[in-house]
């Protein structure tokens, strides 16, 4: 005779296990949104198979590029000898939370630019857009505080020290910008804060190596850009929520 109480307990346990496994898969599946994220207004900027939300800076679409989709990631191939072009979002953004995962190959170096102005008279993304630095701990520049991962490149050191993850693990980053006030996060820790409207920022730019670029750091909206660099960099789970 079947023990009904035992049977019920087994059914409940199996149900809970299946529910947990389903939720875990939903939360961890790369390049997808959970139901919660969809309700909160998140949008994917990379579907895992195409570059539909991106193009090379100043629309150099016909030029050979090192950017490819590989194994569910946006990958910049260091062995590709094509001329270097940064990858830039099709849309402009002003107030938002932007999340992405990334990893670098040994001694890798890359970056994500914000508030980029895409115009023929501006030759590169970094001539207008400040940079969220991406740098492997193995890179020779790691000992330079203004160049470590998560910092506001060449302006602020990491507000809180954070190591990047091991070579084969993914780093989690986010950028939150609201009315020109920006906060950078690396692996859940705040690494930089700045008000792009402030006198402090304007003075910093005036005394920086970017002072000769007339449009640099003067905008609080624009495109997002991924930096093409000489060492391999991979991105995935790229998503944005407008605030």
Automatic annotation (TrEMBL):
Segments passing through the bilayer: none
A single MF term (Gene Ontology): hydrolase activity
Recorded superkingdom: Bacteria
N-terminal signal peptide: 1-27
Keyword line: Signal
All residue ranges annotated as the 3-keto-alpha-glucoside-1,2-lyase/3-keto-2-hydroxy-glucal hydratase domain in the record: 41-241
Name this polypeptide is given: DUF1080 domain-containing protein
